[in-house]
Design goal:
Radius of gyration: 18 Å
Mean pLDDT: 80
Helix content: over 70%
Structural class: mainly alpha
Distance between the termini: 31 Å
Number of domains: 1
Low-confidence stretches: 98-105
Shape: globular
Number of strands: 0
Order of helices and strands: HHHHHHHHH
Largest sheet: none
Number of helices: 9
Length: 208
């Protein structure tokens, strides 16, 4: 079990890390601006669900495989980049009516939730980050290390949910206001597509 002091220090560090500009926070911003704050909340929930996978990977040692194997790391990051490029293409193809409303219905909740999961799970750097970050707060004297990894992962997910949820609310509200103009909506779509494409290129260029 974690001590109260360790939990507070780790949670504070996690909040600061969640606030730092990165792929996940940009993804939440883009999805919230395009589809509204509820979409941002669903994407955030998906991202946090993906963190469960990375936490488990660290707890059972799978994350070490991505750190040690260039092939495994490359395959997973290319899959993530391909998914982001596909999202960019989908955004560019989205039609906009004269009034600024999207002609096709917004993405269903399940789709938005899965986008968050896939965005997170296909980034091997998250597993490697967890592998380097979480053990710093674990202590063999306090009991099972895998259990402590799970506890730390849960705290990180809570911090992420709070920070990203607030960002989704702000970006979603602003995006809905701007989307009343068809011209602005088109610009938002292009900016979002550029963000997705940029994240894909960043992921492709990233190393272990």
């Amino acid at each position: 079990m974690l001590t109260a002091e360790t939990a507070v220090v780790f949670f504070s560090a996690s909040v600061l890390l969640a606030l730092a500009p990165g792929p996940d926070i940009l993804f939440v911003l883009a999805q919230s601006a395009l589809h509204g704050r509820n979409a941002g909340f669903l994407v955030t929930l998906g991202l946090c669900t993906g963190l469960l996978g990375h936490t488990a990977a660290v707890a059972i040692g799978v994350a070490a495989v991505f750190q040690a194997s260039a092939v495994a790391f490359t395959v997973l990051k290319l899959a993530g980049a391909a998914y982001l490029l596909w999202l960019a293409w989908q955004v560019l193809r989205t039609p906009v009516e004269e009034q600024g409303e999207v002609a096709a219905p917004s993405a269903p909740p399940g789709v938005l939730y899965r986008r968050g999961i896939l965005m997170n799970l296909t980034n091997p750097k998250v597993s490697i980050f967890f592998l380097a970050f979480l053990p710093q707060f674990a202590d063999p004297v306090r009991g099972s290390i895998p259990l402590q990894m799970v506890e730390l992962g849960a705290l990180f997910m809570l911090a992420t949910a709070l920070v990203f949820g607030a960002i989704a609310a702000l970006a979603g509200t602003l995006g809905q206001a701007l989307a009343r103009s068809a011209r602005i909506r088109k610009v938002m779509n292009r900016v979002a597509a550029a963000v997705f494409a940029g994240l894909a290129l960043r992921l492709i260029a990233s190393g272990r």
